[in-house]
Amino acid sequence: MRDLCIPLETYAYDQEFACALLIGLLEPTLKRYGIKLTDAPDATSGEAAKSGTGAAAPSADAISISDSDTALQEEKVPSPHEPEPIDSSPSTDKEAPSQAGKIYGEMISELVQNLWRVCKEDCEVRLRAKIEEKQQQVTARVEAVQALRVRAVRAIMEVDGAQVSSFNPSAPDDSNNVLLYEASCMVNGIPVTLHVTYGNLIYRTMVPVFARTTVVPFEDVVNVAQTTSFGIQVVSMGLDTTKHTKGITIAMGLEVDLLFQLLHEIFSMHQREIRASITALPPLQQQETEKNPAELQKILCSEEEETKEDE
């Protein structure tokens, strides 16, 4: 049981640790805007907490009565997981005619085998129940931290008066251009100033004369991974080869792990939006977009153009 649950616990711990890294990176921005993630728990968790509180404070009489009722029910109704008791004592009235041709040792061997079979089945049922319970616990923990990661990013994007990136001019109320993170780092071996927004990854070279600004939409990102280059931890981002000649490698100081969590979370949020858009399409268009992702981009662009024309 322990060996089976260790991978589940490890996965839950990794997700919680990744969430802590992301919150640590966004903490200065959250404090600047006065955002508290614990101020807005969802209604489901609130109702669950209330019901749990109400159920956790019964009177002593109620506890004693319920315990006595439970004891009586357990005496009357056997538990479905408990093995049925097997009478190992030989009965001369019932078993003598049917077991007349068997010696005493064979009878004992059959009883032991039946008892072993019942105990084995009961252990398997209990083990499956424990594993399912552990999976439900781990699923709840992972869903909670993933929701917290999304809430942290969304809270900064939706706050009033949020600072937008100066490297990519846009409307003041454009939430996709809200500055989530700013730092100095190395991109593909060139010192740059990096801006991370929900819509784009923007960096400007620090060379005074040949300064150049590059805007990489997260829609063009294929994958985000953390690798090692010459013994240094870096963040590697694969880009769409039809639009970009090569990918991006970001190297920086101690915050490289935290930056990876932010970029990976934004990339995951965009991927979830794309999957939601695919499921919302008719079945024939779903097949086309699954085979050719570029087809989905054409459909989304055409819908945006129609919306602008209507306006």
Automatic annotation (TrEMBL):
Chain intervals with Basic and acidic residues compositional bias: 73-84
Annotated protein name in UniProt: GRAM domain-containing protein
Region (Disordered): 41-98
Composition bias type Low complexity, residue spans: 51-71
